[in-house]
Amino acid sequence: MSTVSTPAAPAPHAPAELPRPAGLLRKLIRRPATVGAIAFFVLMVLAAAAAPLIVGDPNSFVATERLRPPSPAHWFGTDNLGRDGLARVVYGARASLLVGAITCLLTTVIGTAVGIAAGMFRTVDLIVMRIVDGVMSFPVIVLALALMAILGPGLVTVVISMVVVFFPGVARVVRSTALVVSELPMIDAAKSAGAGRWRIFFRYVFPHCTTPVLVQAAIVFTAAVLVESALSFIGAGLPPDVPSWGAALAESRSYLSTAWWMWCFPGLALIGTVLSVNIVIDASRDILDPREADK
Fold first, then answer.
1. Do the domain assignments include residue 56?
2. 261-288 and 85-120 helices cross at what angle (nearest 10)?
3. Is residue 61 a part of any domain in this protein?
């Protein structure tokens, strides 16, 4: 009697691993748009870091040089007070990037800690997340203005306002990831093996939150740069003696047609910085997506 042979079952497909930082960078540089975005952002960072070496005092002015168009003496022209436009843009990059970087760092640390604590401890979740929901119910600009009115103007106040405004979003994203991870079988196995909460946190929960945290950190950076510029535009951001892209755009409102360079170069710097970071965020999100790992 003949026997029918059954085909062997295919081996289970192992879950794809997310690319490591070196692999992520190699995939990013294969995309021309991403390379251009990274180059522009690095250029802005280098210009901001070397501002005292490449431009003069942004607040010095010459009354006879008011509203001069771009020229070899003033590459970005001069403003309504006779201040050099290039120096204002470069020092504005220094202020905006500094606010964005500090806000990004503090928001990521606080939001990650709150989100993971809410995902692992039900009591913390019930209390803290209701506070987070209440903060997120306010519009960003309105809440930032309220905090600025309470705390007063200044760089520290701007950063504190940004952190209060943006950390709830990071906390919610991290919490949702931590809740998913806490229900995985590996967590139950670790508890059965006698692993403590801190070991479970550092060994299992936190590594799974790395990708959403990095994406949220980049988003917070761009949002902080935009909100800082918006606050400076309406006169509620950095002090008047600190150059800012938003303040430069506000000063150019009376000269939109007669001195186009006053709004063009600060606007291009702001748009280019935000757009470059967003391009890198989108590319990184596509690469870090587990569904793309097999491609």
1. no
2. 30
3. no
CA–CA separation, 35 and 38 (whole Å): 5
CATH of the domain at 249: 1.10.3720.10
- What string of pLDDT tens digits covers the 295 residues of the chain? 444 444 443 433 333 344 455 566 677 777 888 889 999 999 999 999 998 888 888 888 888 888 889 999 889 989 888 899 999 999 999 988 999 999 999 999 998 888 888 877 778 788 888 888 888 887 888 888 888 788 777 788 888 888 888 888 888 888 888 778 777 787 778 777 777 777 777 777 777 777 788 888 888 999 999 988 988 888 887 888 888 899 899 989 888 888 899 999 999 999 999 999 999 888 877 776 655 544 4
User: Does residue 107 belong to any structural domain of this protein?
Assistant: yes
d(CA 244, CA 238): 7
- Domain containing residue 151: 23-50+79-292
